[in-house]
Amino acid sequence: MVGLLNRFQDLLDRSRIFDFLPLLALRIYLVPIFWMAGSNKWSSMDSTIEWFGNPDWGLGLPFPTLMAYLATLTELFGAVFLAIGFMVRWISIPLMVTMIVAMVSVHWQNGWLAIAEGTGIFATERTEGAIVRLDKAKEILQQHGNYDWLTQNGNFVVLNNGIEFAATYFIMLLVLFFFGAGRFFSLDYWIARGYRDNRR
Q1: How far apart are CA 115 and CA 135, in angstroms?
Q2: Of 2, 13, 116, 188, which residue is most buried, by most CB within 10 angstroms?
Q3: Domain of residue 32, residue span
């Protein structure tokens, strides 16, 4: 029995020749997220700066112009660096900081859920109230709108804007910080390999 288990473990161990694939997948997944976030900020930079700085309806951050440009450029360069696998461990650091700032300043007060749910361990009074309103909105649309057409490409949901997505991205970046860009499909791998080869 032990011998059989060892053989199965050996098979699992051989799968490590593909250990670059999950790191590549994490990078590819994160690229459009940071590119779109940075692009949206860049396309309306004045509004972004105002949102960063305004204490009444915005984030109320200090040095809003500097912070807005830092966040925007981090996301844009981060997307490019992740795409080509360049300086991935280094760029993960400011991207993680950006996610922490987002979690604390934007999402924290909304709880965990990104999409509102009425039940479950993460449901709150806020999300339960959102579901009541969502049900009422659906009822109105079913009576007065073409509901089948409206929901043909997906269901209506309420964005709760909790920390769920930002926390998930942070964890993905944390993996990249510790394990890097992965082999073969990254500039980091080829630069490190060339550097090591040249040292011999």
Answers
A1: 14
A2: 116
A3: 21-55+63-109+179-200
Q: Look at residue 129 and tell me if it is in a domain.
A: no
Is 137 among the domain residues? Answer: no
The answer, as to whether pTM is greater than 0.85, is yes
Give the number of other CB atoms < 10 A from CB of residue 175. 13
Give just the sign of the alpha carbon dihedral 18, 19, 24, 26.
positive
Asked if residue 155 is part of any domain, the answer here is no
Query: Domain count of the chain?
Result: 1
Which tokens in the block code for residue 101? 């700032």
Q: Are 4 and 143 in contact (CB under 8 A)?
A: no
Instruction: Tell whether 2 is covered by a domain.
Output: no
Q: CA–CA distance from 187 to each of 18, 24, 31, 81, 178 (Å)?
A: 18, 12, 15, 9, 17
Alpha carbon distance, N-terminus to C-terminus of the chain: 46
